[in-house]
Amino acid sequence: MITIIDYGMGNLHSVQKALERLGYAAFATDQKEKILNSSGVILPGVGAFGDAMENLRRKELVPVIHQVVEQGTPFLGICLGMQLLFSTSDEHGFHQGLGVFSGHVKRFEGDFKIPHMGWNQLIKEKDHPLFADIELGHVYFVHSYFVELEDSSLLLASTDYYGKVPAVVGREKVIGMQFHPEKSGKVGMTLLNQFAKWSVEK
Q: Which Gene Ontology BP annotations are present (predicted)?
C-alpha cells in the first residue's frame, strides 16, 4: 500500500486518483504507524514552505519522514514536497527544511514571468532506474521557488526556465519531482508508475 502523507497541504486527491488509475492502492493519512508500514510514501505539497514545515512539526511527522527514508522505503516528494526535502528555504523568511538532501530553496529572480507555470521539457542529467524505458518529454510545472543544489550528484533531470532548473532529484529510491506528475500526461504518469512499481517490489 502506498501512503500519501496528509499534513493539511497538498494535492492529495489528485495524486491518489492518479495512482488508482495506474492500478495501485493508495490512501492519505497522518497516522505514523501506517506511514512507517507503507510500501511507498509520497509527500505532496502546494503552498508555502514555512507553513508546510510547521504543519509537519505540529503533527510530529518530521521524525517519521526521516525514519521512512532511513529504512529504505521508496519516497517521493512532489512540487513543494520535493523542496521540503532540502535543508533551508527563504520563502517568506528563513526556514529549516527536512534536511534529507543538502540545498537551499530560493525564489526565481529576473525579468521573466513568475511563477514558472506551464509545460516544459525534461532534460535527463544522469541515468537512474526511474528513467528506465522512458522517453522524457514535457511535464507541468507551477512554482515560484526552485532548489539550489549543494550536491550536483542529486540532479537527475532538469528543465530550462531562463537557466537550468532542477526538475527531478534523488538518491537511490528517495526522489523529488518539482513538477506535478499527476498533471503531466503520459510522461508524468509513466514516472509515477515507475515509482509505484518500486513500492510494490520493495
A: L-histidine biosynthetic process
Query: Annotated catalytic residue: which of 104, 125, 143, 182?
Result: 182
Burial (CB count within 10 angstroms: exposed 0-12, middle 13-18, buried 19+), residue 142 = middle
Q: Residue 60 — pLDDT band, cuts 50, 70, 90?
A: very high
**Catalytic status, residue 180:** yes
CA dihedral 78, 124, 91, 142 (to 10 degrees): -60
Task: Say whether 79 is catalytic.
Answer: yes
Could you confirm whether 66 is annotated as catalytic?
Answer: no
Alpha-carbon distance of 109 to 71, in angstroms, equals 38
Residue 6 CA to residue 115 CA, distance in Å, equals: 25
pTM: 0.96
| Closest among 173, 163, 168, 171 to 198, alpha carbons compared | 173
pLDDT tens-place string over residues 137-146: 999 999 999 9
- Identify the active-site residue in 104, 116, 143, 180: 180
- The active-site residue out of 20, 33, 79, 150 is 79
Residue 21 maps to which CATH number?
A: 3.40.50.880
pLDDT digits (tens, 9 = 90+) for 92-129: 999 999 999 999 999 999 999 999 999 999 999 999 99
Q: Could you tell me the residue range of the domain that residue 180 belongs to? A: 2-201
Domain count, the chain: 1
